[in-house]
Amino acid sequence: MSTAKHDRKVRGFQFSPWNLLLIVPLLVLVTPLFNMDGPRLFGMPFFYWFQFLMVAVGVLSTWIVYLMTRDKPTVDAPDRLSVDDLDEGDAR
């Protein structure tokens, strides 16, 4: 394992596609932003149709994160453990 890989310093803004998944929960937590009656859409108050819109934004951001990360490996190296090493039973 190379030590140069671990000696790198992070500078500036680091964007990760996973950050997109934070948009909807953080935006929905700020209820005073959308706690109002108007404008209405098809007779539905803003409070309700904004929440439906956030569901669509959540699905869209999840799809974008999936597309951006589907080809990246989840681990650096394959797991080399045997079945016996993975067994959680008592080894008597």
* Radius of gyration, whole Å: 22 Å
In total, the number of strands is: 0
Low-confidence stretches: none
Number of helices: 3
Percent helix: 25-40%
The string of secondary-structure elements, in order, is HHH
Structural class: mainly alpha
The general outline is elongated
Mean pLDDT: 78
Largest sheet: none
Strand fraction: under 5%
End-to-end Cα distance, whole Å, is 35 Å
Taken together, the total number of domains comes to: 1
Structure notes:
- It is a single chain.
- With 92 residues, the chain is an all-alpha fold.
- The chain has one domain (17-88).
- Helix content is 38%, strand content 0%.
- The chain is built from three helices and no strands.
- The two termini are 35 Å apart.
- The mean pLDDT is 78.
Give a brief rundown of this model.
This protein is mainly α. Helices cover 38% and strands 0% of the residues.
List descriptors.
mainly alpha, 0% strand, 3 helices, DUF3311 domain-containing protein, elongated, transmembrane helix, 92 residues
Question: Helices and strands in order, then pairings?
Answer:
Layout: H1 23-29, H2 46-69, H3 83-86
